[in-house]
Amino acid sequence: MLRCRKAKIVATLGPASNTYEVIKKLHLAGADIFRLNFSHGTHQEHQRVYEIIRRIENQVHSPIAILADLQGPKIRVGEFENKSITLTEGSTFILDNNPALGNQERVFLPHPELFQAIVSQTDLLLDDGKIRLHVVRKTDTQIFTIVVIGGVLSNRKGINIPSVTLPISALTEKDRHDLDFALQLGVDWIALSFVQRPEDILEAQSIIQGRAKLIAKIEKPKALEHLREIVSLANAVMVARGDLGVEMLPEDVPSAQKRIIRQCRELGKPVIVATQMLDSMVHTPSPTRAEASDVATAIYDAVDAVMLSAESASGSYPVEAVSMMHRIIKQVEEDPFYASMAELYRPTPRETVSDAMTAAARKVAETIPIKAIVTFTETGTTTLMETRERPQSLIVGLTPNQNVARMMGLFWGTYPILAKQITSFSEMISTACTVVLKENVAKPGDLMIILAGVPFAKSSGSNIMRVIELEATPQED
């Protein structure tokens, strides 16, 4: 599916969009990657949706990336005698290790590790930040708080503790079970929730063992303290603004988003901006102007992808939401100011042969009218390094590996194509010309750049570049 845009769209699937008909419409409307949210649904339901996507992939003859998003730990209070209470500002409230039903004075906190981690003067945020408690004292079994912001607190509402690194693995037993299932299915990307430190990434990668690529979801302020290490270890990053916005002041989230994007751009890692991008389209057929501007801002920052959550999973207008996001992206990328922004934030090439080659390809494409930059890749690395340059030309990622072709669906500006293995220079040129003509990427007389690494069929990084003028019938050299 050749799109007339560079940034990609991630669409979450759910009750409103888990049928063959709707998924195909979403893909045709512009969805490049489909997200399976393991916070909801059964394994059987996810498998059915996975098989539908692969069926559509075979029909459109184009790789489609699938992302499995793990739920992560959910810290919640226990239950109440009357199902809920009302906390008033200035009153006292206790969280303890007593499993009895809660009341107006106390409630069970079924997470024993937190009694050691939480310290005095810490703020606890309950029910997505609607209620705020301030810790004044604690023992090994009780946490005494003062209500700063009151409200109705009902059974099993969540707790966020923004200022504390919690002694909890990012992978619960449910996550491990879900991860094993997702890897058996053959998903291309795994999104890891509740990332606080680099060790969380290493733990997940030790289980994945290269069977999929890992996305670190930045939703905890503590992760920002280790941002460079986390980005370096992960294969991609998601700016999960929902949970991040609960644990940070609203005015701090935009700058955090910018910081995460800049770090990903510098290190050449794909970055996704997610949560509430077109939230009003859950219930209405068009977004607010502020939401359209929010999507546009992310695109001006040259992110790799933007994501729809409830808009496509449970909303009333899933196809319209994808179509709207596609139109916003396309409009921004046609703005001359967009190219100047990409130039402003382009990272300096590192002192490697591959970086020198990919930077040179981008500069050549700025000097002469290059229709496409064709990369031959075994692992996706050459293609990813070219996306770091944010060239104005389309990047065509050719690979003999189907898993790599699917994975590259997340890469900015990349049109992934499954191609045969090449073994010589003449075969490289012939294959590149044949593919770009067949896929209508270019026409005879157009110029293109070929990037590859020798020896062929090995992960050697790009070390050759060639400029080719397309002929009507590709000839072997």
Structure description:
This protein is α/β, with parallel strands linked by helices and 477 residues long. The chain has 3 domains: 8-72 and 170-334, Phosphoenolpyruvate-binding domains (TIM Barrel); 84-160, M1 Pyruvate Kinase, Domain 3 (Beta Barrel), CATH 2.40.33; 353-469, Pyruvate Kinase, Chain: A, domain 1. It is built from 17 helices and 21 strands. It has helices spanning 20-29, 43-60, 114-117, 173-185, 198-208, 221-224, 227-233, 241-247, 253-267, 289-300, 310-313, 318-333, 336-344, 353-367, 381-388, 402-407, 425-438; strands spanning 8-13, 33-37, 65-69, 84-87, 92-96, 106-108, 123-126, 131-138, 142-149, 151-154, 159-160, 189-192, 213-218, 236-240, 271-274, 305-308, 370-376, 394-399, 414-418, 447-452, 464-469. The strands form 4 sheets. An 8-stranded parallel β-barrel has the order 1-2-3-12-13-14-15-16, surrounded by 7 helices. Strands 6-5-9-8-7-11 form a 6-stranded mixed sheet, with no helix packed on it. β2, α2 and β3 form a beta-alpha-beta unit.
